[in-house]
Amino acid sequence: MSLTRTLSFELTPFELRTLLGEYNTHLKYLQDRLDISIVNRGNDFILTGDLTQVERAQYVLGELYELAKKSDDIAPEDLHLLIQASLARNPETTTQTHTPVSLSTRKGKITPKGHNQAEYVRNILLSDVSFGVGPAGTGKTYLAVAVAVDMLERGEIERILLVRPAVEAGEKLGFLPGDLTQKIDPYLRPLYDALYEMLGFEKVGKLLERQIIEVAPLAYMRGRTLNNSFVILDEAQNTTPEQMKMFLTRLGFGSRAVITGDTSQVDLPRGHKSGLAVALQILANIEDIHITQFSSKDVVRHHLVQKIIDAYDAYDAVESKIESERAEIRKKQRQEQELNRTLNALSFLNSIKDDKSGQGGKDGNDE
Fold first, then answer.
1. Fold for the domain defined by 103-301
2. Nearest CA to 120 among 239, 275, 295, 266?
3. Residues 6+ positions from 316 with CB-CB distance below 8 Å
4. PANTHER family, alphabetically (predicted)?
5. How far is CA 295 from CA 41, 235, 268, in A?
6. How far apart are CA 221 and CA 229, in angstroms?
7. Domain 2-88 is of which CATH architecture?
8. Pairing state between β 129-133 and 289-293
9. What is the sign, positive or negative, of the torsion defined by CA atoms of 71, 76, 81, 87?
10. Which pTM does this prediction carry?
11. Beta strand ranges found along 74-189 (DSSP E)
12. Do 39 and 24 meet the contact criterion of CB atoms below 8 Å apart?
């Protein structure tokens, strides 16, 4: 069913320019994603297209209006997430509102994008141990670093520890050239990038020198107790259950830990269980531990990334089903082979018994 709807907003010329984007890029992107027509005339917007899509566009424009009133810039990822939210919501229901959470860094305020990111930040702030689980590009690591920096700047913690399992090096860092930092730099680069963006290169360098910010491979955490610290374990899907237990039991007074990872991207050798997957099962019912699950809809990257993730998930599901069927076939084949071996053994024993019986009868006749 096609529908035409007109929306009117009270906007200053500057706010209107923010809402539309440079050269109307926001409007064009919204039209392309929802496959509708949007005509802008001053503060009026004429929406034409499928009923459901028009209502989704109305929701997005309303949210863009609120953003334009508060900010002089709307990032592409903001628009992307608003469209994702519109696709996920029921047009007939009202949108739940949440008190926004902002994090302060030297480079400015960082605001979570979308419901799941806001929930994730709240969980980190409310609990001493929290998990962020889901695909890459959902902001798990970036937001954890942002909360850590915010708490460090406000004096709520004394240091930040960044930890990551160096799976590619098999945790055997002694065989790599350079000092500890040089050895693990490649594995911690995403964490460094977030720190540099929030604090600047010079500030991060000074904090590293004073060990207020510390980087360490997971293997170097054994035997330590961490007090008044904010500890981030990134790429946790590549820990073993033993390593995960070791990490979680390092937590001391005044500290909190954030564990991030994607259980669909395990790089451990075949046959090894992921410590993250095991921990999520074991700790799911502990009240003071929060787990935030992200999905492809929360990806803050090019909109094709979500489709790529969904395609791989579908492929993995099919492969898993095929492997289960193959395993069932192999199981039946083993059972049949075992049954055949048993039947052959019984047949062999019976033949021996028959031979003995025949031999005994022959001996009796000879007498």
1. Rossmann fold (3.40.50)
2. 295
3. 264
4. PHOH-LIKE PROTEIN, PROTEIN PHOH
5. 37, 16, 22
6. 13
7. 2-Layer Sandwich (3.30)
8. parallel
9. positive
10. 0.59
11. 103-105, 108-110, 129-133, 159-164
12. no
